[in-house]
Amino acid sequence: MLTCQKDLFELGNEHTYLNAAYMSPQLKTVTVAGTQMLERKKQPWSVTSDDFFTHPRTLRKLFSRLIGGADHDRIALIPSASYGLANAAQNTPLERGQEILMVEEQFPSNYYIWDRRAQEEGATIRMIGPTDSARRAQSWNEALLSAIGEKTQVVTMGHVHWADGTLFDLQAIRKKLDRVGGYLIIDGTQSVGALPFDVSQIQPDALVVAGYKWLMGPYATGLAYYGPRFDEGEPIEENWINRKGSEHFGGLVQYQSEYQPGAARYSVGEKSNFMLVPMLTAALQQILAWSPEQIQAYCRDIARPALDTLQNMGCYLEPDAERAHHLYGIRLPDQIDGDKLQAALQEKKVWVSRRGTALRISPHVYNTSKDFNRLLSCFEMAQTTRIHKLP
User: Residue 256 sits in a domain of what CATH number?
Assistant: First the structure.
């Protein structure tokens, strides 16, 4: 079982950071990896041709382990979730009259590219939301499954909802999509790294993950898995390093029509980024040492007493089985003054996010139950009517 890992970061005690869904703090090992490579470029002769390929290959192998042992040749290096989603959208066949399903209040980066594709091809986007506020997650999953039909060509969504952590049943969605031949495109930015994800079980056609949140890497990094349906696709950019034989610098002007094997065609140009790739590599090594399963268990255990008290105060929170433990939304009752709560959070330097109708809480292994007691004290300061707390 994990214990608090705060000593691996430089967070201090003045701030209570419960906002990893906004941006993860940086591990000390990640800072060291970046600094070492930054120093190395002072002497460019020390960067060899092999460095262009070895570090990205190591990173791809680490990510393949994180998502259940996928073939590392199916992993591409990307600079952002939108980049990875654009590759998937461009290579998903779409015809007039077909439908693209996505969840209500989808993150914008997973909306705009599909909106453009829908307009280009005469397809339709359908937003699916929960139908019952009393059983929000269950009704949302039921609505998604019910919406999948003969016109459905794509379901594109997260494993959890980015605003409140609602957990979606991707395996059931995949099974329903198989009946109609539809594509499943997952934005794993708010889940992969902290929540177990196994491509062999879920079988997404594409999984796209930005690196600076739950992968705990630097900004402008990310990783994507592309399944067999994208093997012969056309990448959104053409660059030298993704072509067959690019390891042989002396023959680069012998232009090649073939790409590197697997998903390498979808990697961003300059994927070898000599500073960012080692940083993300160091982050994934640490995540694998912790494991997403243990991260979930740790976050659940440190939060449970405080969350029980908040529910007794009238706050709404999805049941444990229907939400993630690293990211969830708390909806306020009438007796909690939102403005007073915001002021209390600022006063006590408790960092969370407001997303949609929920106050989004996103802890990690550097937090403890004391951080949640501090959060709870902010809610108590914001009460307009004192509520008897159950023991």
Answer: 3.40.640.10
CA distance 66 to 284: 8
Residue 389 resides in a domain: no
Residue 346 has which token pair?
């600022």
Give strand pairing partners of 354.
359
pLDDT tens digits, 104-147: 999 999 999 999 999 999 999 999 999 998 899 999 999 999 99
347, 13 contact by CB (below 8 A): no
The whole domain housing 207 covers: 29-289
Same domain, residue pair 275 and 297: no
Asked whether residue 33 falls in the same domain as residue 107, the answer is yes
Backbone phi, psi, residue 104, to 5° = -60, 140
**CATH number of the domain to which 371 belongs:** 3.90.1150.10
**pLDDT, tens digit (0-9, with 9 covering 90-100), for 264-300:** 999 999 999 999 999 999 999 999 999 999 999 999 9
d(CA 64, CA 19): 26
Q: Quick one: which H or E segment has residue 303?
A: helix 292-312
